[in-house]
Design brief:
Blueprint: H1 7-24, H2 30-36, H3 42-53, H4 57-66
Helix pairs in contact: 2-3
Length: 67
């Protein structure tokens, strides 16, 4: 753990990394991923995902499938 990183920043980093891994698993839907990451609902997860990756989870999956 890097010095100067607080718990919130560490948690967000882990959630971001796990979100990306879970999104690659097509058997998991977005609401399941939100639950696995501890978000209270899918809308909160979608907002966080868009902040992290610049796209909604569904748009991100569409781009990934096309590319």
């Amino acid at each position: 753990i890097e010095e100067g990183v607080n718990f919130g920043e560490l948690l967000q980093g882990i959630r971001r990394e796990l979100a990306q891994n879970y999104m690659d698993d097509r058997q998991l839907n977005v609401s399941e991923i939100a639950y696995l990451l501890g978000f209270s609902d899918q809308a909160n997860f979608t907002r966080a995902f868009k902040r992290w990756f610049g796209a909604t989870p569904s748009d991100w999956r569409k781009r990934k499938a096309a590319g």
